[in-house]
Amino acid sequence: MANAQLGLKSGFPRAHLANGIGRFVGQLQRVTLKFCKNHGASRGMRDFIENDLVDYAKSNPGVVVYVKPRRHRGPVIKAEYLNGETHWISCRQFTRECVVKHMELVRTQSRDSSAMRLRKMWHTEFPSIQGPWTPFTFRDPKLNITELPNKEEGACPKYEPTATEEIIRLFKEQQLEDKRDVEEKQLKN
């Protein structure tokens, strides 16, 4: 494990409140764009505000967008979600396209998922009470003390005929009986 992950909370990937099961509810509640009107590091943020902000607000009516100019401070995107979490992205020296990508990122994610160390890539809320299935689940326990190689255990198992094999056998018997009936009729005539 990397040292950078030691301070992170650990958890499992999951959809908050089963979002998307009935219908999808966007989790982004509020976005605050903080920038400086003069400083060169805020140029990408200013370009985004001038060119793309109105279209972003029209296409996302459930998101409240605040614009907050600050003097002599770096540009920041502050995203607030329905679950109360806040995510900050520093946009220093970003281009307009980078700001557009990060605005789309905060809109589509439900929280700062990079701040969580995943314990497993999958998780279930209702695990099986019987435990996981393995090929040895229903095997006879005497196999644990059997000396190997063993001719009895190594022999190919003999199964009953399948339904298809049984139907083929019955069909062939019926054909043989029909042949015998035809031959008996020919002998009588």
TrEMBL record:
GO terms for biological process: mitochondrial translation. This is Large ribosomal subunit protein mL43. The keyword Ribosomal protein applies. Its main location: mitochondrion. Residues 37-110 form the Ribosomal protein/NADH dehydrogenase domain. It is found in: Mitochondrion. InterPro entries: Ribosomal_mL43 (IPR039927), Ribosomal_mL43/mS25/NADH_DH (IPR007741), Thioredoxin-like_sf (IPR036249). Belongs to the mitochondrion-specific ribosomal protein mL43 family. GO terms for molecular function: structural constituent of ribosome. It comes from Trichogramma brassicae. It comes from the Eukaryota. GO terms for cellular component: mitochondrial large ribosomal subunit. PANTHER family: 39S RIBOSOMAL PROTEIN L43, LARGE RIBOSOMAL SUBUNIT PROTEIN ML43.
